[in-house]
């Protein structure tokens, strides 16, 4: 379940202070894969060794709503070597007259958590989170630093505090997540330099996660097509480790 926020609560009115390419016409981050290699549950007959898992996704940007995505999904019966049905857009920007400047930084946090009890109603969990005073205070702090190019470390710490609050409402979950990943996409880091699709993977011994970073630059694409006489689907897909 995704939590939609009131703009008055989260909106940042000014564009980011970090200069970005005015040629970028669109940015999309897509969570394309969550593959569970080992679910953390021992299998022995007659028990199949399934696990109950939550996937938490948090996306923060310096443009528009501070928290672009806050999503919690539950999966009640997950075995080893199983891909979770999570393929979805977690951030989207399209250049318009009212929003001509693209974001200069997007921060993504993804965590896979094992539950020790029956899965909670994620809708109720998210509602409890929205009404939590500590959560409101964290969001206010994130809002105040979201445009600071040096704030990635602070944002990471604040995101971990949000996950702790979520854990409080989830109840009896494993202390250590099967997987956690905080990834920043920034113009200073060069993540928006190349038009097309960049595949950004991360994995540990238990879980593999893949994000597709899709950058659209209409002027560069048209120039490339004119010079090479190829179609957009011929663009090279790059993989970033």
Model description:
The chain has helices at residues 7-10, 122-130, 133-145, 152-170, 218-228, and strands at 11-12, 26-36, 51-61, 64-65, 67-78, 82-84, 88-94, 105-115, 179-186, 196-203, 207-216, 238-239. With 241 residues, the protein is of the alpha+beta class. It has one domain (7-239). Strands 2, 6, 7, 10, 11 and 12 form a six-stranded mixed beta sheet that branches. A four-stranded antiparallel beta sheet has the order 5-3-8-9, covered by helices on one side. A hairpin with a 3-residue loop joins strand 10 and strand 11. Helix 2 crosses helix 4 and helix 3 (133-145) packs antiparallel against helix 4 (152-170). The longest helix is centred in the last third of the chain and has 19 residues, at 152-170. The radius of gyration is 19 Å and the shape is globular. 30% of the residues are buried.
């Amino acid at each position: 379940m995704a939590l939609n926020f009131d703009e008055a609560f989260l909106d940042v009115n000014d564009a980011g202070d970090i200069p970005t390419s005015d040629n970028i016409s669109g940015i999309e981050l897509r969570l394309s894969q969550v593959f569970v290699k080992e679910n953390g549950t021992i299998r022995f007959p007659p028990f199949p060794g399934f696990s109950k898992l939550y996937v938490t996704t948090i996306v923060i940007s310096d443009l528009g709503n501070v928290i672009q995505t806050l999503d919690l999904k539950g999966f009640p019966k997950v075995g080893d070597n199983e891909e979770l049905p999570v393929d979805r857009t977690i951030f989207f920007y399209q250049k318009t007259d009212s929003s001509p400047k693209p974001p200069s930084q997007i921060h993504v946090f993804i965590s896979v958590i094992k539950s020790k009890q029956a899965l909670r109603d994620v809708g109720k969990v998210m509602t409890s989170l929205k009404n939590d005073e500590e959560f409101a205070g964290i969001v206010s702090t994130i809002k105040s630093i979201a445009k600071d190019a040096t704030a990635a470390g602070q944002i990471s710490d604040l995101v971990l505090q949000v996950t702790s609050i979520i854990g409080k409402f989830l109840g009896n979950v494993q202390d250590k997540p099967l997987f956690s990943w905080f990834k920043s996409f920034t113009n200073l880091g060069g993540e928006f330099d190349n038009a097309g699709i960049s595949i950004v993977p991360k994995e540990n011994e238990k879980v593999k996660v893949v994000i597709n970073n899709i950058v659209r630059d209409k002027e560069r694409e048209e120039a490339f097509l004119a010079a090479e006489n190829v179609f957009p689907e011929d663009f090279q897909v790059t993989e970033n480790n």
